[in-house]
Structures are given as C-alpha cells and as structure tokens.
Amino acid sequence: MNPVPESSSTSPTGATASPDVSRETTAAGTDVSRETWTEGQAESWVADEAVDTPIGAEAERAVRLLHARGQLPRPAQQRVFTIANQKGGVGKTTTAVNVAAALALQGLKVLVIDLDPQGNASTALGIEHRPGTPSSYEVLIGEVPLRDTLQQSPHNERLFCVPATIELAGAEIELVSMVAREGRLRTALEELRNGELSDFDYVFIDCPPSLGLLTINALVAAPEVLIPIQCEYYALEGVGQLLRTIEMVRAHLNPKLTVTTVVLTMYDGRTRLADQVAADVRAHFGDTVLRTVIPRSVKVSEAPGYGMTILNYDPGSRGALSYMDASREIAVQGAQQRGQDQ
Ligand SMILES: Nc1ncnc2c1ncn2[C@@H]1O[C@H](COP(=O)(O)OP(=O)(O)OP(=O)(O)O)[C@@H](O)[C@H]1O
Ligand SMILES: [Mg+2]
C-alpha cells in the first residue's frame, strides 16, 4: 500500500512558481489569456496557509481569494463533467458547487446542472427551486429549452445553475416510456455546444445517489466523469459497479466517456483510516486522483444551510482553500488536454 506523502496537508500541489503574471492580470481585472497562462504559474492556496499565523492571515487569504479572478486558463473547449457515485453522501453535491464556485471566482464561466430531485446543489448555490420553477425536469422531458431554466447565482456573476425541483423525482419513471430515454439530456445540452450558451467554460452535472435513468442521462451527456470518494470505511464499495456502468455507457451510448477526475473528500488527517483509503484510491485510479484532498470541515457542511458555497461562507477556511486548489488542478488538467489535442 503506497503511503500518501501529503497526509498532514490537504494540498500537496505545493507549486511555488511565480505568481507575478496572475497578480498583474488580476489587478488589471482581465482574464489570463490562453497564451499567457502556463502551468508553472500555479501556486497552492493551502500551501500558503502553512506559513501564516491564524486570524489576520485568514482574513488576508479571504480577501486575496475573493479577488482571484483571472488566475486560471480557459479550456480550449467547453468541458462537461458528470459528478457521479451511487453511494449517498460522499460529497458529490459539495464538490459540484464548490469546484464550480472556485472556478467562477477565478474568472471562468460555469454552469451547474442539478439532476438530483433533492435539489441540494440548487440550495447551496442560493437558487430558487420551489415546485413550478423551470428546472432540469422540464429540460429532460423536452418541455423547456435549457436557456429558459438558467439562474445566476447571487454570489457570483459567472456562476449559473439549472435547478432541480421535486418534480424530478417522477422523471425516472416517466423517462422509461420515452423515446431515446437515455439521450434526452444530451439532446437538451446541444444548446450548450452551439449558440449563446457555448461560452460556458465548465459544466457540472450533479447526480442523485443511484445508477438510474437520471445518472445514465448525465453519463450520456458528458465526456468527463468526476467521482468523489469519501475517505471512510467502504469507500470503494460500489465503485466497481459504477465503473461497469460507465463502461457500458461508453460501449453503447457515449464512446468519449472517460473518468478523468477522482476527488478524495472528507479527509480527516487524524485518522489512519483516511490515509489508507487515500492510498487505496490512488493505487486504483492513479493520476486521475487529484493531489488536493478535501478535508472534513464543519464549515463546509454549514455553508449550504445559508444558501452559500464555502467560498462565500468562509473564504479563508481550509475547506475553501482546498476547493480552490482542486479547481486549479482541474483547470490545469484541461490546459494539458488542450496541449495533447493540438
Ligand atoms: N468536506 C466536508 N466536510 C464536512 N462535511 C462535508 C464535507 N463534504 C460534504 N459534507 C457534508 O456531508 C454530507 C453529504 O455531502 P453531499 O451532500 O455533498 O454528498 P452527496 O454525495 O451529494 O449526497 P447525496 O448522495 O445525498 O446526493 C452533507 O451534509 C455535506 O454538508
Ligand atoms: Mg448530492
């Protein structure tokens, strides 16, 4: 079993790198262009934290984080992720909303599609999702175009959400009798690829804890899968079944589907178990596992209760910093993919 070298730190990205370019461009209020941004300019928010003293430093970090716009590269083309794990409560929604918010904070335009009838992502983003609100349900059954369901998060002008209402709970059953039932979300997302919605840099689809038709629709609609895995007992339980489902969707419905990203969540550095789980997951998934690990933090779990992400609720906290680092890794991954595509 491989030890996890970063057991005491949530982010080993640790890149020191020169922050000059990103600082300059931030001050100018402009996005870092595709030409000027390089991976070497990456730095770690959590690593910075290690040298600081408590309260003043936390406030300083919070201010810096809230003015982080323009620090990440835009992907060459829009990236669409399905966030899936049929195990409940592993951090799918928390990862969806906080990675999305972190990317938006750093200048990218991001959409979260809430595909879980629980509507937790909508709640965390401060988005209206009472019954009757135009939502992912109407998009799925083809009643309303995607653009008519978009809502802007009150916390960030570049962060949008297609909410989920309780009506979505009936969709699994309604979909069964529909034509092309597995591809309905993909058809609805055509709008994102062409026309006015094509300027979204990142799209995250938050799935319910099941492998039913909602999750299948999400897997058919997205080329990339992000799997959050909780650093707890039975972490890998059920992952085999998820991977088989992904394989089946790839073989029959979506040849581009790939698990590009695995995120370790709710890591508790005080326990040996968390390290063991992290090592097992890294042994299994290799480089797709983000080096940044999301710590277990009460603040992270409190934020949705206020209709906020951790980036708004407590921007100087470790939870916020680790989601900033995770989002940076994802964006760098996107820049590297771009290099490979060229
Ligand atoms: N890093 C964290 N630290 C502490 N609590 C967390 C953390 N991440 C998530 N939680 C809490 O754990 C619970 C489950 O998280 P979340 O809702 O993101 O999981 P999920 O996989 O989306 O769940 P579901 O399967 O029900 O959709 C929530 O109460 C959330 O606030
Ligand atoms: Mg959820």
TrEMBL record:
CDD domains per UniProt: ParAB_family
InterPro entries noted in UniProt: AAA_dom, DNA_Partitioning_ATPase, P-loop_NTPase
Region spans: Disordered: 1-43
Start-end of Low complexity biased regions: 7-19
Function, as annotated: May play a role in septum formation.
The family this protein is said to belong to: Belongs to the ParA family.
Protein name: Chromosome partitioning protein
Organism listed in the record: Mycolicibacterium agri (Mycobacterium agri)
